[in-house]
Task: structure prediction
Amino acid sequence: MRKRLAALIVLIAVFVLAGGCTGFNFGKGLKQYRPENVAQAVEELKPLVEKGNADAQFKLGSLYYQGLGVPQNYMTAVELFRSAAEQHHVFSQIMLGTIYADGIQDVIKRDYPQALMWFIFASAHGDKEAMDLRDSLASRMTPREIAEAQEMARRFKPKDAYARLYEELKSLAVQGNPDAQLKLGFMYYSGRGTLRNYQEAINWFKKSAQQGNAPAQSNVGYMYERGEGVPQDYAEAAKWYLQAAERGNALAQLALGSLYERGLGVIQDEVQALKWFILAASQGNTNAKAARDRVMVWMSPAQIEEAQRLASEFK
Result:
């Protein structure tokens, strides 16, 4: 009997450690804002959000989270919650903890250390619910994950340099500055100063590219080639690479040459490939030099001469 009981206890312990227990409900930590007149609330909240009002950031974030009065956008919601949480807004800290504890499919990965960090911050205000959520989450985390969360909390610095740069660039980008739009796209692409968001990245790259910014045009081509933030489309990639390549962007010239070499999005053409490799290599791009030397090995003298002629005529 004792052996059976011992075995049962071990089985239960394993079941809990494996996440089999369904008693944890981090979703109960959601604090949602539901005004009677949603449209009016959105109009009233936006000016306050721009001024940095934490309560307004939480409320507008909640509307984005639910898709009330605005298109549902979890990334925007999280950005607003974070801005408020950094100002010690308890409900926003609990929301972030809940979001990271549960995760959002295809949007935000479950991140227990990050979730625990926000619950720790909220608990510091004496919030009973935050304490319960903190303890519930900690009970299913490994000692290493808990230590990571504690270290994150110790090192946490609201509004770091990247976050401040993000805000400055966003202001300029909205006004139509192409350089700011390019840099803002990089911040979204790399996840510095804001959450990584490929769709936002290509959105800002495109805005800059449409004003003739060659690096931005090259970046749009790159994201279409890779299928990041947009469906993979080699023909669209080639179109954007060409715009940048014609403006002398070496990275775009190399990328366009590669598409011609492989016949992706364009008709395969070794002469065109070599032409663009030559142009990129002339700017000191080492990868282009290697590509140029590689394709010349199997090309005929006539083809090489034609590519060199086209490159020399390029303006």
